[in-house]
Amino acid sequence: MIIERQNQDIIIKANGSINLTAVQKVIDYINVLEIVSENGGTEEQASELAREANKNWWNKNRSRFIK
Prior knowledge:
- By secondary structure, the chain is α+β, with helices and mostly antiparallel strands.
- The chain has a domain at 1-37.
- 0% of the residues are buried.
- The chain has a two-stranded antiparallel ribbon with strand order 1-2.
- Strand 1 and strand 2 (9-13) form a beta hairpin.
- The longest helix is centred in the last third of the chain and has 23 residues, at 43-65.
- The chain has helices at residues 20-38, 43-65, and strands spanning 2-6, 9-13.
- It contains two helices and two strands.
């Protein structure tokens, strides 16, 4: 595996036999790190956003679990 920096980008080169599902999980995690590093919100704002997302999800999916 080769990791190099070009200007503001980080380039990762890996052997073609690597598991693509695992690579996607790593990329997703790096995307989260990138988003978090640019976030200026507070922990309380994040908690409120999570509560609202959970509430909206439950309202849309409740019928799948309670019949």
